[in-house]
């Protein structure tokens, strides 16, 4: 059976759990990281030398890195759904997964840490202004990409939407001023209506 280590307050763990729930995969979930600890044990270090979550063990196949895990689960268990069979559609979904990790997350991560996990009197106003502006610029890129689309790669919910939905859930909940993004709002509503999001994409942020 699939075994997953993580904590649901982690955006990267949310990606994996959303994929697992979309695919209705039987699994066990081990709370690890953050307040749960467990990452500094020799046993965990042998499984993931980075000592981070998420981590999976799928019947002996061990894998870390959230987007790699989502791709693996989608390709193995979700061909034709999360893993599009059309190579162009699949590449489009894949591209947005990389964009979330390399563009949106580097901006939004510091914004989240400053606003949610840093006491107000210890925040860095200059850094916060910079990363909020960068996060919002990324939001505008996504807004433009979703124009006229049900989901990021077209009419089908794919692995690309998983990575973006977890990021958008966090961005939309941050206490910041954001540009008007009606396409994101409509897409986000469609995503949140999917049963798989229950218990995974929750508020408040922590």
TrEMBL record:
InterPro entries: Glutathione-S-Trfase_C-like, Glutathione-S-Trfase_C_sf, Glutathione_S-Trfase, Glutathione_S-Trfase_N, GST_C, Thioredoxin-like_sf. Residues 1-81 form the GST N-terminal domain. Residues 86-206 form the GST C-terminal domain. SUPFAM superfamilies: GST C-terminal domain-like, Thioredoxin-like. This is Glutathione S-transferase. It comes from Bordetella genomosp. 1.
């Amino acid at each position: 059976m699939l075994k997953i280590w993580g904590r649901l307050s982690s955006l990267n763990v949310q990606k994996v759990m959303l994929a697992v729930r979309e695919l209705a995969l039987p699994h066990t979930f081990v709370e690890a990281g953050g307040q749960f600890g467990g990452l500094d044990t020799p046993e965990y270090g042998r499984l993931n030398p980075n000592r981070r979550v998420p981590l999976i063990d799928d019947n002996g196949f061990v894998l870390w890195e959230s987007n790699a895990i989502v791709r693996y689960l989608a390709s193995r268990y979700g061909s034709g759904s999360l893993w599009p069979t059309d190579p162009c559609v699949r590449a489009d979904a894949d591209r947005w997964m990389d964009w979330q990790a390399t563009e949106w997350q580097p901006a939004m991560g510091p914004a989240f840490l400053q606003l949610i996990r840093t006491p107000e009197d210890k925040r860095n106003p200059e850094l916060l202004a910079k990363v909020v502006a960068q996060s919002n610029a990324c939001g505008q890129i996504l807004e433009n990409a979703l124009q006229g689309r049900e989901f990021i790669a077209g009419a089908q919910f794919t692995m690309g939407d998983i990575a973006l939905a977890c990021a958008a859930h966090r961005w939309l909940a941050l206490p910041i001023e954001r540009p008007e993004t009606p396409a994101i709002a409509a897409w986000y509503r469609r995503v949140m209506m999917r049963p798989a999001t229950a218990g995974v994409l929750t508020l408040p942020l922590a």
